[in-house]
Amino acid sequence: MRTGVVFSPLDPILSSPVPYGSAWMVRGDSGIGKTVFAFQFCLQALRRGEAVVYVSCDEDPRRTQANLARFGFGVAPYIDSRQLVFVDAFSETPGPQYVISDRTDAEEFAYVIGNAVSAAGEVVRIVVDSVTSLAAYYSSRDLVNLVYEKNRLLRSDTSVLLDLYLGQAVESQSMYCLTNAYDVTVDLYYGEEQGGFPRRSLRVRKVRGGTFDPREFPFRIEPHQGIRVDATFYSK
Question: I want to staple 61 with a disulfide (CB 3.0 to 4.6 A). Which of 21, 86, 169, 211 is the partner?
Answer without folding.
Answer: 86
